[in-house]
Amino acid sequence: MCCCLTKHLPQGGTITKIILSLGFLLFSTWLAIAAEKTGDRNSTMRGKYIVEHVAMCVQCHTPRDQTGQLLLSRYLEGAPVPVKAPANLRVEWALKAPAIVGLPGYTREDGIRLLMEGITPDGTMPKAPMPPFRFIRADAEAVVDYLKSLS
Q: Are 94 and 129 in contact (CB under 8 A)?
C-alpha cells in the first residue's frame, strides 16, 4: 500500500475487526430482509388456510354446480347463499354472498375491522348468515392480505 494511506489506517487487528463488523452488519441486514419476505409468504399462506379451512369462506362465497360441488374456477367470486333462512328467524338474511377476491370496496383496514369487530365500511353489520367474526389482528391481517393478493 502507498505509505501515505497506511499512516492513516488503524494498526494491528483493528482493520480485521472493522471488516468483520461491516460483514456482520451486511449479513444481518440480508437476514432481516429474507425473514420479512418469508414472513409475508407465511402470513399469506396462513390467510389461505383460514379462508379455506377455518372460516370456511369458500362455502358461501364460491358458486356451486348443479351437483353442489364448488366451482373452483370461480373461487370466491360471490354466489347465492347455499342455506335458506330459518322460518322463525327475525333477522335480515343475505340471498347472495358477495365476491371477496381482492376485497372490492374494502381498504386493508376496513377488512381487518370487519374480521375483528364485525363492522362493515359503512358502519353496519353484515347480513346473516355471515358470522360475526372476532379474529385476532394477526389472523385478520393474514386473511385480508391473502384475499387482496388474489386480485
A: yes
